[in-house]
User: Fold these one by one.
Assistant:
Number 1:
Amino acid sequence: MPYFTDTQLAMRDAIRRMVDKEIRPIAAQIDATDTIPPHIFDLFGDMGLMQLWVPEEYGGPGGDLTSVCMAREEISRVSEACALIAGQNSIGVILPLLHFGTEEQKKRFLPLVAKGRTLTAVAMTEPESGSDVASMKTRAKKDGASWVMNGQKCYITWGNIAHWVLVFARTSGEKGFQGISCFLVDTRSAGFKVGKNEKKLGLNGVPNVTLYFDNLRIPAENMVGEEGRGFIACMRILDMNRPTIGAASVGVAQGALDAALEHAKTRKQFGRPVGHFQGLAWMLADMAMQVEAARALVYECARQVDAGDFSRLSELASMAKCFASDMAMKVTTDAVQVFGGAGYMKDYPVERFMRDAKINQIFEGTNQIQRIVISRHLLGLH
Ligand SMILES: Cc1cc2nc3c(=O)[nH]c(=O)nc-3n(C[C@H](O)[C@H](O)[C@H](O)COP(=O)(O)OP(=O)(O)OC[C@H]3O[C@@H](n4cnc5c(N)ncnc54)[C@H](O)[C@@H]3O)c2cc1C
């Protein structure tokens, strides 16, 4: 078990109590109806979970990477969909602003987010630009005191209900990552249009939508970071989101392991609990080992970042995300196996855990891309 402070442990216990009371009873319903009830967002806002990383000087709880990981792990034990409210919102827009925003931007925006009623999104992916982010086509052109954006993004988490979206767009003819800038977009602006909301394998309750920018006018003061350098800057900082996906993976795997253990102790065949058969007992032992190993990696990465050591962030963040999500896919699949036929039914949460776990191998850079990052570090090519 990683080392946590008393304050962090108290936060974890409070989240656990809230999740058991408010989310566990409706987790299956959220999945079935593809809707997270609005009061859950308010509850998260009241507990500081939507705005964990906003510093105290801007009215926020002053959290760090460890606390965001803890929140995301705890909530994912029951509902990975709900955990995304705490995870992405506490990082996606807050961190780029904290590190690259002007003082005016921080004063204007962070106290607003600190109130716990502001939902944010990050829009990078386009229909023809996924892993190859640098090939994005969305463009913004300077026009007087504003920028005019045209283009399209897809799969954007919370895109239809977010109040603000951090949008990446090309602002010059330079190729590759150079020339991509980053804008804070008010979703009430004329020219901001929401398209299709995807039907998904898992993570139900979380909307993923297409966004269209049709001559969308953005005030120049809403550019985050330097013109043409926004992408490189923001990506470095958004590496910090990867360990939180590792934490979500640990949470969903722990939830599946807990359910599998309960079933293995109570379901009897051949006159014995099925967990007493070595075939399942060793499977459970492997599951527990993998969860603990992934947890250690995730929180070691968070510990280094919170101690101000960013020297291995990129490499460790990719390892934490990739290792933990591969682990969660395996552990949740094995949990379904421990349940036998019942595991395939929607009466138990394990099939939902298995469907939800899959996303962690895909978003925020697929696990193939994480392996490219890790191997480049190993080979000195980064
Ligand atoms: C539920 C969900 C939520 C999302 N939320 C957001 C969001 O909020 N904001 C946002 O901007 N995006 C979001 N995304 C997009 C997500 O980040 C991309 O789907 C992901 O980065 C992969 O891009 P792609 O889907 O275009 O796959 P592709 O890039 O088309 O990849 C297809 C396959 O090829 C592999 N591949 C690609 N290049 C290489 C390579 N060089 N070497 C080896 N293999 C390679 C990939 O690993 C993958 O297996 C979301 C996606 C989903 C499914």
Number 2:
Amino acid sequence: MAVRGTSAPVDAGSLFAEYPFLPGADALLGGEPVSVRSLLEEAAYERPRAIGRARVLAAADDPRALHDIDELNAAAADVRYLSFLFARLVLSAAPSPAALRRWAVAEAKRGYGRLARAPANELEEIARRLGFPGELDGGSVTLDVADYVRLASPIREAEFRLARQPVRAGRVTVPAVRAARLLQEAIRRSLASPLPLAEPVVALVREREAELFGDLARRMPAPVGRAGVAPGALLRDRFPPCIRKMQRTLEKGENLSHAGRFCLAAFLHRVGADAETIVDAYRGAPDFDESVTRYQVDHITSHHDGAGYEPASCDTLRSHGLCAREGDPTAPTPADRGRDELCFRPVLRHPLQYYRLRGGTTMELPGDGSGPVTSGAAPGTSDAPGRTPSTGRR
Ligand code: SF4
């Protein structure tokens, strides 16, 4: 970020302790690099490991919980940095990317907690070190429309929509406090990508931290079906492409529209997910609020004597831009990147029909679209009135 005018220098040591993801933060180690094996095994690094595990587990529970780790807040700058390195290393070797994405959201939120109150010179310094594209001039930041859209698109708050920004000559100007929120998104993106680790390193991390991975699996369990509907594990790999894409969007900590959030909760309820599983689906949302999410999930699932609201039909999802039958080029697996032929069968009109055709079980409700696909039963209503899980917005 280029800065017009003067700005006081920022102490690099305190900066790196608070923002350990910044390039150059390894200066906290005084020029003595720590090897992966040392960080994983040596007794001298037990404290950074313990705090690193606390970072990982707190993020798995609640993306806002990193603010409340007392040992982290009280630790010396180099220990904090090493605990960050340890957490990132371990999660890059995790069997599933979900925990890394959740942690990236949590670390970005922790960074934002300070950035939002930071003096202008600190904001400038962070932006410069992150290569944030824009110019800071007094209390505002100006950046290209394309850069703005890239950073703001996962942000759900209405005031970040491009239509609400003053655009001149292809440039957008936002107040500094909003630039802090854009920086949060830039941080989340950079941390959500795993470190490129060689196979022997992955194996070593998994062996050394098997207990932590076990704890993570208990805190982030595989979806479980409700007794009477779909006892046992839900068949997530047989969910339709639209639903899988909605889940990936939230896991990455990106924005999912109201229609998508509502449909996801209603779908998960109809395929038998319990309330915990449905709430968990929203934990990665940038604006996740546990109590609000629980309230809204309860509202959606208790409707109509527990039948819940009807998930949207394929036509409705297409009109909202949520159908993913053509494939998702950003998906991590080839199966999700390619076109799904089942979705192109004329008879397929509802995501629940898709799940049943792939062998899944859904709640049997007359006329709700969950009947056999061959019956031609029309899906019922689409988006029912209600609020969006995780934020409480309508
Ligand atoms: S065709 Fe229907 S089930 Fe398939 S991805 Fe689109 S909305 Fe989902």
